[in-house]
Design goal:
This protein has 189 residues and is of the alpha/beta class. It is 39% helix and 21% strand. The strands form 2 sheets. Strands 1, 2, 3, 4, 5, 6 and 7 form a 7-stranded mixed beta sheet that branches. Strands 8-9 form a two-stranded antiparallel ribbon. Strand 8 and strand 9 form a beta hairpin. Bound molecules: flavin mononucleotide.
């Protein structure tokens, strides 16, 4: 039985001050810590990486750190705004960096619990992005946890680490708990 805490990496948000997708991610990681995880967050400004280039020798220091953390991760939480009907370029570009993990013993998101948060200004966009993030997690061989989070930022507000809608906060807490629990399951497997 391992004593190590599960390590959960969060990727998401936008560079906008007060970004709701970033605050939702921060909230999720906070709940993950409450439930026994260590976490590392790559928010909007941390994701200002060059467009991923598969050519050898092009990797930046910042890109290397992201990949090093993803290699260590037992679980990953992705949070994207809906930008014109899809996952934002900022978040997708960060995910594209996982191509560096294509030859790893645990390729891409293999053996990792994946949580997903989609945020949009309305009711349609968040569900679309949530679905896309789960498809990406699946394509990268990750294990999506059962509960996905769709946030309509027109009605749900985040401020000072809190969510205005208790039902959404509860869903984020449950999703974070599922990521931690599934990550622990992988660690003992
Ligand atoms: C370039 C751009 C495109 C957007 N496209 C959509 C969209 O197609 N559907 C939607 O629901 N919201 C759209 N939005 C709104 C964002 O999804 C919304 O502001 C959400 O809160 C996420 O951004 P935030 O993390 O910065 O708060 C768009 C915002 C921007 C800046």
């Amino acid at each position: 039985m391992t004593q190590r805490k599960p390590f959960i990496v969060g990727i998401g948000g936008t560079t906008r001050t007060g970004s709701s997708s970033e605050q939702a991610l921060a909230l999720a990681l906070g709940y993950a810590r409450e439930q026994g995880a260590e976490t590392k967050m790559y928010g909007g400004n941390d994701l200002l990486l060059p467009m991923y280039d598969p050519d050898p020798g092009t990797m930046t220091e910042a890109g290397r750190h992201l990949i090093e953390d993803l290699r260590k991760a037992d679980g990953i939480i992705l949070s994207s705004p809906c930008y014109h009907g899809g996952v934002s370029g900022l978040v997708k570009n960060a995910i594209d960096y996982t191509e560096e993990m294509r030859a790893d013993p645990r390729v891409y998101f293999d053996g990792r619990a994946i949580g997903a948060i989609g945020v949009g200004y309305g009711y349609q966009g968040p569900g679309m992005v949530l679905s896309q993030l789960r498809q990406i997690g699946h394509a990268l061989r990750g294990w999506n946890v059962p509960l996905g989070i769709a946030v309509n930022s027109a009605v749900v507000k985040f401020q000072d680490g809190k969510c205005s809608e208790p039902a959404i906060a509860k869903q984020i807490e449950i999703m974070a708990g599922q990521v931690v629990q599934h990550a622990k399951n992988f660690m003992v497997a």
